[in-house]
């Protein structure tokens, strides 16, 4: 009988509280969907892994280390499910680490990141809208994605376009490390003179440093400070996407699709 595992791969976070509400919650959903599989956690961020080990004595393996561990335990069938939002650099890094192991397991498959198919975009939009208040003319819902130099960066603008097609033109999506950025967010807000309030949200699985500092921090260069300086009344909702049940279910569905793929 095959020994099976599911490897949940995240970028990682050193904030234990948000880890439990996001990454651990997704892993719990995965474990419920795959009761016949061992579940193992891995992080792609070496910096976070080192910090957790030095500060807390917690050892989180990289994907390659986790796959070596599963090999040593006699596992023959592995589903890798990333908790990444886009098919970007971290996903490419994961695929590169997994590739040498393809011939070492009887079966190794990889689930898709959050935003992959157009059906995924619709499911993510639905999951987010379940958590938002009704649209109000004087309020913008502003989301901060991570952003990247990777060619999939337009995923963020496609998601915003979809929200608008669904009637939620109050939603603006920017990124902290890509385009559109804060400058574009402020310009978009200025094009709607009826907007006096902005609610800020992270468009990230985990609400870590970027959410707490770049988005909602008190420093003058944070998005919160910039919008307040521009005259907006600002509130912050620092829940990561991983806290939303619809997002947890979508990751589990991607893992199920990978497990069912017999190619």
UniProtKB/TrEMBL annotation:
Q: Where does Co(2+) bind?
A: 146, 177, 210
Which Pfam families has this protein been placed in? Answer: CbiK
- What keywords were assigned to this record? Cobalt, Lyase, Metal-binding
Query: What positions constitute the catalytic site?
Result: 146
Q: Does the keyword Metal-binding apply?
A: yes
List, alphabetically, the Gene3D superfamilies matched.
3.40.50.1400
Write down the CDD domains for this protein, in alphabetical order: CbiK_C (cd03413), CbiK_N (cd03412)
Q: What is its EC number?
A: 4.99.1.-
One term of GO molecular function: metal ion binding
- Which Gene Ontology terms describe the biological processes this protein takes part in? anaerobic cobalamin biosynthetic process
> What protein am I looking at?
Cobalt chelatase (CbiK)
Q: Which organism is it from?
A: Pseudoflavonifractor capillosus ATCC 29799
Primary gene name: cbiK
């Amino acid at each position: 009988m095959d020994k099976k595992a599911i490897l949940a791969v995240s970028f990682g976070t050193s904030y234990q509280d948000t880890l439990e509400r996001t990454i651990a919650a997704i892993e719990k959903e995965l474990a419920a969907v795959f009761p016949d599989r061992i579940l193992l956690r891995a992080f792609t961020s070496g910096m976070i892994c080192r910090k957790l080990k030095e500060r807390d004595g917690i050892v989180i393996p990289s994907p390659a280390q986790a796959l070596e561990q599963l090999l040593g335990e006699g596992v023959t069938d592995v589903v890798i499910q990333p908790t990444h939002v886009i098919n970007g650099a971290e996903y490419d890094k994961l695929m590169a680490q997994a590739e040498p192991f393809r011939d070492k397991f009887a079966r190794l498959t990889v689930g898709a990141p959050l935003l992959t198919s157009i059906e995924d975009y619709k499911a993510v939009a639905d999951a987010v809208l379940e958590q938002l208040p009704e649209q109000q003319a004087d309020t913008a819902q502003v989301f901060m994605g991570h952003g990247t130099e990777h060619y999939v960066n337009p995923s963020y603008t496609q998601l915003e376009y979809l929200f608008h097609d669904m009637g939620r033109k109050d939603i603006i999506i920017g990124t902290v490390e890509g385009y559109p950025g804060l400058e574009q967010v402020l310009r978009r807000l200025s094009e709607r003179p009826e907007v006096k309030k902005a609610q800020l949200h992270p468009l990230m699985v985990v609400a870590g440093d970027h959410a707490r500092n770049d988005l909602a921090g008190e420093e003058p260069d944070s998005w919160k400070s910039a919008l307040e300086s521009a005259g907006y009344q600002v509130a912050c909702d620092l829940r990561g996407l991983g806290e939303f049940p619809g997002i947890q279910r979508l990751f589990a569905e991607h893992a199920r699709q990978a497990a069912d793929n017999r190619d």
